[in-house]
Specification:
The structure is a single chain. The chain has helices at 3-24, 28-53, 57-79, 81-86, 92-113, 117-140. The chain is elongated. It has one domain (3-140). It is mainly alpha-helical and 150 residues long.
């Protein structure tokens, strides 16, 4: 086992444990935030696994997840507008932590891969991951016009 696989195990175990606990217990606002954060933590895990196993196909899965994960959260935010309006989620700390994990992972992988197309792809994934996480979290908390009438 190398360092990349160990880091992937830590990110995935910590993220999956927190997401599973958040989705299975508590009020709707916690479950919605946990669903959003699970995407934000599985994507860096896939990137770390890609580097650990030297499989570039995992990077493509991470790109797909970085694109579609926040879209799923936005759909949930739209469908659960009335239920979330009474008790909106407040997850600024968790959102910043997940964005930080994504940023650190992408920067470390960019340094390991060196200049080239793979680095550009990693930077695009990182930008999509962080921006999507921030937009989806803001939509859940009612801050985007048209999602919750905010």
């Amino acid at each position: 086992m190398n360092g990349w696989l160990l880091a992937a195990a830590v990110v995935l175990a910590g993220g999956a444990g927190a997401a599973l606990w958040g989705v299975s217990t508590g009020p709707l606002r916690r479950r919605a935030v946990a669903q959003n954060l699970s995407t934000a933590l599985v994507c860096p895990g896939l990137l770390l696994l890609s580097q650990g196993y030297q499989r570039t196909s995992y990077v493509d899965l991470a790109l797909l997840l970085a694109l579609l994960g926040p879209v799923g959260t936005l759909v949930f935010a739209r469908l659960l507008t009335d239920e979330l309006a009474d008790d909106p989620p407040r997850a600024q700390g968790a959102t910043r932590a997940a964005a930080g994990v994504g940023a650190v992972t992408v920067l470390a992988l960019c340094a390991a891969t060196g200049p080239g197309r793979a680095t550009v792809k990693l930077l695009v994934i990182g930008a999509l991951l962080i921006a999507g996480n921030l937009v989806a979290s803001r939509a859940l908390s009612g801050g985007i016009t048209g999602v919750r009438g905010g």
